[in-house]
Amino acid sequence: MKRFKITFNSPVVLGFIFISFFALVFGYLTAGMSNRLLFITYHSALSDPFTYVRFFTHVLGHSGWDHYIGNAAYILLLGPMLEEKYGSKRILQVILITAVVTGLINYLLFWNVALCGASGVVFAFILLTSFTSFRNGEIPLTFILVTIVFIGQQVYEGLFLMDDISNLSHIVGGIIGAIAGYKLNRKK
After folding, report:
1. Taking Cα atoms as reference points, which of 116, 135, 122 lies closest to residue 176?
2. Residues 58-67: pLDDT tens digits?
3. Where are the domains of the chain?
4. Superfamily (CATH) of domain 11-185
5. Residue 41 pairs with which residues in a beta bridge?
């Protein structure tokens, strides 16, 4: 009988999920102090070196278990396929670009709003996934439908619902995923 072994099949995605999990636990253990220091971006002084760190690390923080589980489910569903197709380096680049762009936009446009969570990364992955069968000169119908459904929902919710969800970071993440999908899949 053949034995099965557990493989670490997607190092960037799994690393991201594990680090996010530990950030969430650490946040509970420190009564939120670690989140404020490292895992939430907000309008802080540019002389504070942690301001620049948080532009990247805010995607690792989450407001609670439900927030974490929602993002982790999508990332674990989509991430390994994307990492296998595009490689660990490219997926890490998508995560880092999404983090810094959403962090900077939040810092510049929303002075009184703190931002945390991997939702922008989730939306980048969703749009990037819709490009997996892209060929030069074609626009996949799946991309159009995903864009209408996911980005349309975020625009609607951003305009008509008052909640603590950063719809703009979802839209920005989706745009980054779409640009990455196009660039990574076009023929040279």
Report:
1. 122
2. 999 999 999 9
3. 11-185
4. Rhomboid-like (1.20.1540.10)
5. 115
Could you report the per-residue pLDDT of 122-181, keeping only the tens digit for each? 999 998 988 777 666 677 787 788 778 877 777 777 666 555 556 778 888 988 998 998
Asked if residues 120 and 99 have their Cβ atoms less than 8 Å apart, the reply is yes
Closest CA to 25 of 16, 35, 15: 35
Largest CA distance in the chain: 62
In angstroms, the CA 36 to CA 32 distance is: 6
Contact between residue 110 and residue 53 where contact means Cβ atoms under 8 Å apart: no
Strands (E), the chain: none
CB 165 within 8 A of CB 115: no
